[in-house]
Amino acid sequence: MVKRIRHILLAAALMTGYFAVRAPAAQTSLEDFLNAVRSGNPVLAASAKRLEAFSHTVKSSVAVQRPSVGLRGSASWLSDTQQAGRRLGERGNYGLSAAITHRFDVSGVYGAQEKQLLLQYNGLAFDHMALVNNTLAAAESLYWQSFIARENISLQRGILNQRKEDLRITEEKFRQQLIPRLDVIRAQAKVEEAESLAVEAESAYKNALAQMATLAGGLDLEPMEESLLVPFLSVKAGIEEAIARRNEVRSAETSLQRAKVLKTLAAKGMSPTLDGSASYTILTDNDNSSPMEKEFLLSLNLSVPVYDGGKTKEDVLDKERTIEAAEGTLRSRKDQVREDVVKALNQWGKAVAVESSKRKQVARSDEELNITQIMYKEGMGAQIDLLNAQVDNQRVKTEHLAAIKEMYLALVSLKQAMSEYELAPLE
Prior knowledge:
Elements: H1 2-21, E1 26-28, H2 30-40, H3 42-61, E2 68-76, E3 93-104, H4 109-175, H5 181-215, E4 221-223, H6 239-245, H7 247-267, E5 273-284, E6 296-303, H8 311-377, H9 383-417
Parallel strand pairs: 1-4
Antiparallel strand pairs: 2-3, 3-5, 5-6
Helix pairs in contact: 1-5, 2-4, 3-4, 4-5, 4-7, 4-9, 6-8, 7-8, 8-9
């Protein structure tokens, strides 16, 4: 009895601490929770910022392809008063000029440079969308785990109430001297076990809610109160469709395209360059300035490389190996998509079969437990039969709940494999 009281006090303390520490969470539907994760998840926000930052990197990198305009001013002062008999105010010289400079694309480098930068940006964008798809899949999985965890609390509480009722009946029979003391001890043990399982269910739910808050950027949310329904297959799954829709594949394809463009750029390492400039001297007192004051100067400088120490050759070989690596990555990504779809379909098929079997077992176990309880109340059944029926009923109900959860998780795996949360754009 002392041990039983200790268990009850421990359970009460844990339950009290749970509700005292945790503030009431706002109920949310699955769609609203996914939107909260999409907008509030710090990992997704950081990825989006990095993508935005690189868009500015692209713009700054191609800025060198455009003409540049600048002003140049200069001034000097001579301390030697013996120089050329100059008066004090005439020592030194000054100048102010303006210039427009531009490097002409005589070898077609600019287009390739811009294309590889855009491809790099697109690859990062596909990686970001893949991260969104995977994060939202994890969020939906967590939503259903939390939902099932709360259902498990209800299940364990119901079992606990039934164990307490069985204990009440057992104690009453013991007072009537119809059963031995051993039956009461067994019934008490079952109550203590049920109390422990109820506390574990509460703890699991609390942990799931904490994970939901982390994914949603700190928002305290919990699944909407609604009936638990067995899910149905709402995703059209196919390997070729998945390959076309997955951002990971599009990212690998983009990397391969960029590697080919980079090889083209590397092959132009010995290309000539042509720089042009137009300058105008606004004012100066230097007789040797070029151009002279209020004059224009147009100039063209052509540079033709003759030998670069083998740099271009090695760069081309490097880019060829990079292309081969990118092709291998693309094949690997496609193989991974095939594996994801096949495994998700197998997971769904297994979950459907298990749920169907467990549902039948629950119905049979409920009927068996009901008959056993009636017989025990009427004094026509042994307590060991009741205990066995209770254990079996608790097991199959818990397993059926777990089977339903596996169906939801399998459905999420299918949606993730088909990139349902963030589709790759067609173009």
